[in-house]
Every structure is written in structure tokens, then in C-alpha cells.
Automatic annotation (TrEMBL):
It comes from the Bacteria. Keywords: Cobalamin biosynthesis, Isomerase. The keyword Isomerase applies. The keyword Isomerase applies. PANTHER family: COBALT-PRECORRIN-8 METHYLMUTASE. This is Precorrin-8X methylmutase. Residues 33-228 form the Cobalamin biosynthesis precorrin-8X methylmutase CobH/CbiC domain. One of its GO terms (biological process) is cobalamin biosynthetic process. GO terms for molecular function: precorrin-8X methylmutase activity. InterPro entries: Cbl_synth_CobH/CbiC (IPR003722), CobH/CbiC_sf (IPR036588). Belongs to the CobH/CbiC family.
């Protein structure tokens, strides 16, 4: 069957309740096969040679999520990032995110210890603290992560202010996460917050996509790759 219409596109009688519509196009429908082909194509077309071996599966998932074969040029990882993040998750660490879209994008079956995934953006205490501290709700939410942040895995893909605030909390003697994915997207503070994370003086393991690129899909894809070494689970 060639790609495209296999009939005139008209199906008489209308849809049958509970039955799929007539298949008019030639396309892959098996989810595992889609992943296999996608990851193989990424590996064939992207230059991953500049990345450590244990980081390449992470980069492959991020490229798959973004469609951006040039992503490895902007990707920077602490030498201990992969080991620290996987070790923390295997030990049951909580995942903290700055956006519900990231939390929704985490594939729960890949989590090694049924890890909690938490975003406190809608916590009722957040708006008042944001006003009192003259900051964003995203940054205020970070302030409520509390002691559970110690040894946690942090994924920030939306708000540079959340990443800056996290670093300021650590500087003030607050809990230190096991690993930080700093991938906020945007034009104001995004690139600068990532540089601050890379240059952090506490040796926090990090993953960043330098520049303005980032977002929830990239952040969730990195989390899903770190959750399990197996590319397809």
C-alpha cells in the first residue's frame, strides 16, 4: 500500500459505533515500533559524538521530543548528572517540577520507585508569597518545596525565576537536590539562569540546554530518559 489515500475517501453508511474508521493512509500504529524507528533515525542523523556515552540516550529522547537535530550543540551536562539522577530516582527521590505540563509528561511506568512527582504552582499559599516577595508564582512555589528537596530531582522547564530562586535557596543554606534539569524556555532570564546553574559553586549536578530553547516537552523527555537506562520500556 502506497502512502496516501487508498480510496476516494468516502465511506458509506457513516461510522460504526465502537469500530475504528476505515484506514485510508499507510502509517505505523504500533507505539513501540514508532519509538524504535524514531530513535534509530535520531541516532543516524544527529551528531552525539561530543556527549558522554551515558548521556546519549538522554539526548536521543530530547531530540525526539523536540525534532531538533542540532540540540546536542547546546546541551551541557555535569559529569555526574546521569549517575546522580538515576541513583536518586532508584532510591525513591521525589521529582519537583515548576510546571504541571512537565509532571503530566512524566511516563509513570518508567519511574523506578513509583516516585512522587510534585508541582506546587496551585498551592493556595503561593499567590500571597509571590506578592509579598515581589516575584513570580513559579519562584514562590519553589520556596514551599521544603526539606523534601534534599536529594530530590528537580526539573525546571518553564520559569527562569524558579531556577534562580532554587539556586538562591541553596546559597542560603537550604536543601540541595541530587540533580537539576535547568531547561526553562524564554527570552528574559532563560539563558542567564542556565549559566548560573552551570557555574554553581556547590557542584550541583546539572543538565541544561543553553540559550532560549527549553520547555516542558524537553524537560519531561529528559526525565523519562533518566528514569530508566532502557531506551524503550
Amino acid at each position: 500500500m502506497s502512502e496516501g489515500l487508498v480510496s476516494d475517501g468516502l465511506v458509506s453508511g457513516g461510522p460504526v459505533p465502537g469500530a475504528p474508521p476505515a484506514r485510508l493512509y499507510d502509517y505505523v500504529t504500533d507505539p513501540a515500533e514508532i519509538y524504535r524507528r524514531s530513535f534509530a533515525q535520531v541516532r543516524a542523523e544527529a551528531d552525539l559524538s561530543g556527549l558522554p556515552a551515558d548521556a546519549r540516550t538522554v539526548a536521543v529522547r530530547m531530540i525526539h521530543a523536540s525534532g531538533d537535530l542540532d540540540l546536542p550543540r547546546s546541551l551541557a551536562l555535569h559529569p555526574r548528572l546521569v549517575g546522580a539522577a538515576r541513583g536518586a530516582l532508584e532510591a525513591g527521590a521525589t521529582i519537583f517540577t515548576d510546571a504541571y505540563m512537565i509532571a503530566s509528561g512524566v511516563t509513570r511506568r518508567r519511574l523506578p520507585a513509583a516516585n512522587a512527582v510534585r508541582c506546587l504552582l496551585d498551592d493556595p499559599r503561593v499567590p500571597e508569597r509571590a506578592r509579598a516577595w515581589s516575584t513570580t508564582r513559579s519562584a514562590a512555589a519553589v520556596s514551599f518545596w521544603g526539606e523534601e528537596l534534599e536529594g530530590a530531582v528537580v526539573a525546571i522547564g518553564n520559569a527562569p525565576t524558579a531556577l534562580f530562586h532554587l539556586l538562591e535557596q541553596v546559597a542560603a543554606g537550604g536543601p540541595r537536590p541530587a540533580a537539576v534539569l535547568g531547561i526553562p524556555v524564554g527570552f528574559v532570564g532563560s539563558a542567564e539562569s542556565k549559566v548560573a546553574l552551570v557555574e554553581n559553586p556547590w557542584d550541583l549536578p546539572y543538565l541544561v540546554v543553553h540559550g532560549r530553547r527549553g520547555g516542558s516537552a524537553l524537560c519531561a523527555s529528559a526525565l523519562n530518559a533518566l528514569a530508566q537506562e532502557a531506551e524503550i520500556a
